[in-house]
Amino acid sequence: KTMREKAKEAGEEFNVDKVFFHEDKPAKGAWMPEDIVKFMMEELDKGRFYIMCPDNDVDRETDNLRMTWTMGDIVNDRPPLSSWHPDYMD
Question: Which region, left, alpha or beta, applies to residue 81 given φ > 0 means left and ψ of -120 to 50 means alpha?
Fold first, then answer.
């Protein structure tokens, strides 16, 4: 059960400060649903098909490098997360 449901059943008021994540206190770097929809619509208006939503923790170039390496794991039959594997580290 959610913490909100548990509080309701106990006759208590739900306290946002006691939960790890809530829309009123998003995690550092997190995007809220309305932010994601807004970004998606902006990208669609630009004619983009593939949409990679940023996370505010790393820049787009770093995201692209990570995705490229991960796709290399798949197409080159490397172990998952090979960038952490000593045989594949540069």
Answer: left
